[in-house]
Design brief:
Low-confidence stretches: none
Protein name: Pseudaminic acid synthase
CATH topology of the largest domain: TIM Barrel
Structural class: alpha/beta
Distance between the termini: 64 Å
Helix content: 25-40%
Largest sheet: 8 strands, parallel
Number of strands: 12
Number of domains: 2
CATH architecture of the largest domain: Alpha-Beta Barrel
Strand content: 15-25%
Pfam families: NeuB, SAF
GO molecular function, one term: N-acylneuraminate-9-phosphate synthase activity
Shape: elongated
Order of helices and strands: EEEHEHHHEHEHEHEHEHEHEEH
Number of helices: 11
Length: 348
């Protein structure tokens, strides 16, 4: 499959998505600076989120609409206020996308309701992302699938049955190109609860491309994911974590994102195929193996002793495994010290 001009698959370099989320801190100038910085890191795509506080939640205080989890980054926040602070104004989308296009970088978004899909269609986005928390929102999945564009679906918290239901719904509604992202919906997540070994299992179960939506710090989990077959990696991105913002704590800075782009590609390149023996690039290195050489001048007819032969570098003589077979054999000609051994110097 392809997203824009980029091939997605294990035979292509990993497709890296920089997620802006709310890291613009309600500044369009900062949002555009984030786009510029992402492009400079070498990632292929920038992603936004498309919602308003009113399209994603209710303007209700207290009860279910307050975050009370002691371990949450957003403990004590009201949902409507939090989403109002984090959302990307819809009037910014076109300018942000134009900026990305100027850099030759794709830009698409995560819609959180059907009206956001209609809006993004008017901007002709090249793909759609479904967030983990919306992976059970089947009406939204049908709406996105009906566009016929590639879909990337995060699967944080989702059971096998829920993922199956989402994939089946998408395919029945017209989706042909689907990427599932292994995701742990903690913010930040830890490497220990990332479970990248799920990636090849998901590929086998669902028959589509698999990637990682990574909320850990650093790049280690993403590299491990690529080593286990991930073809897409998504990471939150900011200019500086110290600038604050709703997602800044688990976002990568530019140098870290650049490292991610470089190291995931190196990880992918290193996979290769199952192979043994000296590869094409190793042929010259064969000379640095050890082999059996004549260690001192030996007159013709002499019986070879351990003093006459040594196992040394380079590797142009007989292999070390033949050393004992040569001891006690008779030289059929004069042998000079430094001569690589061969069977034709031995009397039968």
């Amino acid at each position: 499959m392809h997203i824009g001009p980029h091939k997605i698959g294990r035979d292509a370099r990993p497709f890296i998505i920089a997620e802006m989320s709310g890291n613009h801190n309600q500044s369009l100038a900062r949002a555009l600076e984030i786009v510029d910085a992402a492009a400079a890191t070498g990632v292929q795509a920038m992603k936004m989120q498309t919602y308003t506080a009113d399209t994603i939640t209710l303007n209700v205080r207290g009860g279910d609409f307050e975050i009370t989890d002691e371990n949450s980054l957003w403990k004590g926040r009201n949902l409507h206020e939090l989403y109002d602070e984090a959302h990307t104004p819809w009037e910014w989308h076109e300018e942000i996308m134009r900026r990305a296009q100027r850099h030759g970088m794709l830009c698409f978004s995560t819609p959180f309701d059907e009206t956001a899909v209609d809006f993004l269609e008017s901007l002709n986005v090249p793909a759609y992302k479904i967030a983990s928390f919306e992976s059970t929102h089947l009406p939204l999945i049908r709406k996105v699938a009906a566009t016929g564009k590639p879909m990337i679906v995060s699967t944080g918290m989702a059971t096998v049955a829920e993922i199956h239901e989402a994939v089946t719904t998408a395919r029945q509604a017209g989706a042909k190109d689907i990427v599932l992202l292994k995701c742990t919906s903690n913010y930040p997540a830890t490497p220990a609860n990332t479970n990248v070994l799920t990636i090849p299992h998901m590929r086998e179960l669902f028959g589509c491309e698999i990637g990682l939506s990574d909320h850990t710090m650093g790049v280690g989990a993403a590299i491990a994911a690529v080593a286990h077959g991930a073809s897409v990696v998504e990471k939150h991105f900011t200019l500086r974590r110290a600038d604050g913002g709703v997602d800044s704590v688990f976002s990568l800075e530019p140098e870290e994102m650049k490292s991610l782009a470089i190291e995931t590609e190196r990880a992918w390149q290193s996979l290769g195929t199952v192979t043994y023996g000296a590869g094409e690039s190793e042929q010259k290195s064969l000379a640095f193996r050890q082999s059996v050489y004549v260690a001192r001048d030996v007159p013709a007819g002499s019986i070879l002793t351990k003093e006459d032969l040594r196992i040394v570098r380079p590797g142009h003589g007989l292999a070390p495994k033949h050393y004992e077979m040569l001891i006690g054999r008779r030289a059929n000609r004069d042998l000079k010290a430094g001569t690589a051994t061969s069977w034709d110097m031995i009397l039968n």
